[in-house]
Each structure stands twice: as structure tokens, then as C-alpha cells.
Amino acid sequence: MSLSQLVKAVEEADSSRKLFEAVQNLANARLEGAIPTLIEALSYNNPGAAVAAVDGLTLLGNPAVPALLELLDMHNYTARSWAIRALAEIGDPRGLVTLLGVATADFAFSVRRAAVKGLGLMKWHWFPDELREIAQEEALEALLFVAQQDDEWVVRYAAVVGLQALSLTIADTYPQWRSQIQEYLDQMANSEENLAVRARVWLALQHIQQNISKNIHTSSGIAAIAENKSSLTTDDWQGILNQLYEIKRQERAKNLEEGDPRRFQKLALEIQNKS
């Protein structure tokens, strides 16, 4: 079927079942032209159709990100929550700051869980080196906060998975952060009350130790997927840098430790010079 036929089937669906099937067929087509209709499906009062739309947007990947970010400015919370799930699955750096905020502050535990998962799936290998350091530091702080503070065990569980993924990614570049993660998980293994989370902590520790012993990168490491180059523009990176700097500015306003602003200014100049 053509794109127009698939879209028409979604628009003319007259039952929940038909709507789900139409959205699913549209998603499976993997056509970039379907993005607006899949985005619209996120706001339907039909969870099945929304899940199918999220799957379709995830399959399309990075081309869907601008429309998803635009959706976050709307007041429809249901649509926003599905958009966050899609951003988390895609792992595009443009969604980083959104995921950081949602992971630590959203009122719905299912959305926090998705955001935490997204921090673990982030395409870290796309980041310029110094910007990657700033971004991963923020992700580390967010994941540690969630693992310690979140009331829902499924969110803490996701944070443990995210910490494991991050530790393997930074194993060579920032071994001190890997050690920090390992030390925290060691403490969590003794203090966590939920048995499922505790078991996942032990599994994470096992994987981290195996990585240290073998001194290799897993599939989540930067070296293993370095051939997958970023499609982001200089303006995209500048936007991400500005968002991260705003986080630091807010931390300063709260009398928390702040990164050196000169560091951000230097990186901004480097990004501009590459344009």
C-alpha cells in the first residue's frame, strides 16, 4: 500500500481495533512521510495505537526526533508521555536534557522509567569528546539520584540497568566514574529492599567486573560502534550545549556546585569553528 492509502486507513478507522491495525500497518511501512500521522496517533485515546506509533517512530529513528521534541511543548500530557517513550528508545542526543528532567521529576513512574532507560540507550558515540564528558556527568548524577531516591522499584531497576550501560561506555575514558558506579552498586546491593532490584544490582556488578577483567568494550561502548556517525548539525550540538549550560546555571542558582562557565564558552567556540 502507498503512504496515502496507509494514512487514509488511519483517518477512516471507525473502531479501536481498526485504528490499532491501521497505525500498526503505517508504522511497519517505515516511511518518513508517516511521521506526522504517527505523531498524531500518540494523542489518540487508544493505548494500542499509541504503542504502535511509538514503535514506528522508533524504527524511523532520528528523522522523527524534531517532531517529537515539538510535541513536548504541547499541553496534552498523554501525548507527551508517549513522545518521551519514543525519544528514550531512539537515544538521539537532542532528547538528552528532556530525558534528564523527566527521569528525576515526572509524576508518572512509567514515564520516569522510560526516561531512565533512554539515558542508558543514549548514542554517546555521537557526542563531541568534551561535550560527551559534560553530558555523561549529568546522566551519571541523574541515574545515581533515581537509583537512590525513586519510590518505585521498577524505576530503580531501570536506573541500575542504565548505570551498568553507562559504566561500560565510560570504562576507558572515565574509569573514576566507573569506580563510583561500582561503589554505589556495592552499597545498593546491601541496602536495597526489593529483591528484584537487588538481583539486578548483582547482575550489573557481575557484568562490570567481567568488563574490567577482560578489558574489552561491549556493544554499548563507543569504540564498538564508532562507525555509526552522527547526523546532527553544528546548530544541533550548539542547542544541546546551551541546554546543558542552563542546567549548570540552575544548579548555581540553587547554590550547588557548578561547572566552570569557561569550559562551556571554549566548547561553544570549538563547535562554531567546525561549522
Structural commentary:
The protein is mostly helical. It folds into 2 domains: 1-90, Leucine-rich Repeat Variant (Alpha Horseshoe); 91-275, Alpha Horseshoe (Leucine-rich Repeat Variant). The chain has 14 helices and no strands. It has helices spanning 3-12, 16-28, 35-41, 47-60, 65-71, 77-90, 96-105, 109-121, 129-149, 153-169, 175-191, 195-214, 234-253, 261-273. α6 (77-90) runs parallel beside α8 (109-121). The longest helix has 21 residues, at 129-149.
Tell me the distance between the termini: 41 Å
The name CATH uses for the topology of the largest domain is Leucine-rich Repeat Variant
Query: How many strand segments?
Result: 0
Q: Note the beta-strand portion.
A: under 5%
The CATH architecture assignment of the largest domain turns out to be Alpha Horseshoe
- Return Rg in Å: 20 Å
In short:
It is built from 14 helices and no strands.
What's the structural blueprint in terms of helices and strands?
Blueprint: H1 3-12, H2 16-28, H3 35-41, H4 47-60, H5 65-71, H6 77-90, H7 96-105, H8 109-121, H9 129-149, H10 153-169, H11 175-191, H12 195-214, H13 234-253, H14 261-273
List keywords for this structure.
mainly alpha; Leucine-rich Repeat Variant; 2 domains; 71% helix
